[in-house]
């Protein structure tokens, strides 16, 4: 099952920023649809792992769970090189690659492409045209996600209606607010990292279970 296959009326769930096997396996057991690992980003984060560890974590996923490489490449070539090492099911791009770069990347890798955008930037449609999925996030100053902050869900809901490309909602989602977020936005998928952590880079296993169960229990 790919990142953009039908979910039969429920929202898909991605647990992101996984750094170790125990956290990965809790997400899998909880029923997460996708597991995200972060590698090769030019910002300081305790969620970053090496390319070799990213590959190890994603190779341990069972069938029907999507492995997502989250990265901020400086160029298309850098993204291709990293993906060739990690061999993820999907590559999630943050940062400065232009829409034409994303299109070229799609020609060079077989993985699906997820492009992270801010909810209010002007060129979302251009990215949506070349991506398999658009992730709407609350980005920091350098274009990275994982800020733990929510954004204007009304604008994201409008994007869901406007775009043909599926939309994944991220940014400050927790077990406590994800139900409201799904009801308000009706995204294809939701993504959490800091919202299910005890500290940056370490998951709260009870929170992971609660997030997945709550999100998947909301019917659209």
Describe the structure in your own words:
By secondary structure, the chain is of the alpha/beta class. The chain has eight helices and ten strands. It has one domain (12-216): TIM Barrel (Alpha-Beta Barrel), CATH 3.20.20.70. The strands form two sheets. An eight-stranded parallel beta barrel has the order 1-2-3-4-5-6-7-8, surrounded by seven helices. α1 (21-30) packs parallel to α8 (205-216) and α3 packs parallel to α4. The two termini are 20 Å apart.
Secondary structure layout plus pairing:
Elements: E1 12-15, H1 21-30, E2 34-38, H2 51-59, E3 66-71, H3 76-86, E4 90-93, H4 99-108, E5 112-118, H5 124-128, E6 133-137, H6 153-162, E7 167-169, H7 178-185, E8 189-192, E9 197-199, E10 202-203, H8 205-216
Parallel strand pairs: 1-2, 1-8, 2-3, 3-4, 4-5, 5-6, 6-7, 7-8
Antiparallel strand pairs: 9-10
Helix pairs in contact: 1-8, 3-4
SSE ordering: EHEHEHEHEHEHEHEEEH
- How would you write the strand order of the largest sheet? 1-2-3-4-5-6-7-8
Low-confidence stretches: 1-7
- Beta content comes to 15-25%
Largest sheet: 8 strands, parallel, barrel
Give the total of beta strands: 10
First-residue to last-residue Cα separation: 20 Å
Domain count, please report it. Answer: 1
Mean pLDDT: 92
Task: Indicate the overall shape.
Answer: globular
Which percent range fits the helix content? Answer: 25-40%
**Cα-atom radius of gyration:** 15 Å
CATH topology: TIM Barrel
| CATH class (first level) name | Alpha Beta
Which CATH-level-2 architecture?
Alpha-Beta Barrel
């Amino acid at each position: 099952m790919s990142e953009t296959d039908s979910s039969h009326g429920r929202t898909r769930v991605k647990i992101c920023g996984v750094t170790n096997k125990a956290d990965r396996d809790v997400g899998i057991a909880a029923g997460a649809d996708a597991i995200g690992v972060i590698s090769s980003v030019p910002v300081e984060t305790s969620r970053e792992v090496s390319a070799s560890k990213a590959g190890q974590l994603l190779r341990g996923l069972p069938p029907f769970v999507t492995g997502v490489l989250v990265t901020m490449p400086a160029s298309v070539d850098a993204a291709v090189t990293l993906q060739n090492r990690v061999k993820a099911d999907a590559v999630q791009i943050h940062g400065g690659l232009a829409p034409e770069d994303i299109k070229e990347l799609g020609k060079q890798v077989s993985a699906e492409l997820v492009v992270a955008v801010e909810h209010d930037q002007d060129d979302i449609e251009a990215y949506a045209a070349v991506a398999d999925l658009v992730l709407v996030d609350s980005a920091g100053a350098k274009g990275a996600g994982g800020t733990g902050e929510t954004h204007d869900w009304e604008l994201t809901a409008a994007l869901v209606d406007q775009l043909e490309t599926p939309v994944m909602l991220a940014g400050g989602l927790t077990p406590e607010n994800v139900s409201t977020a799904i009801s308000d936005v009706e995204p294809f998928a939701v993504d959490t990292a800091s919202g299910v952590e005890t500290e940056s880079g370490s998951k709260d296993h009870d929170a992971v279970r609660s997030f997945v169960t709550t999100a998947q229990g909301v019917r659209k």
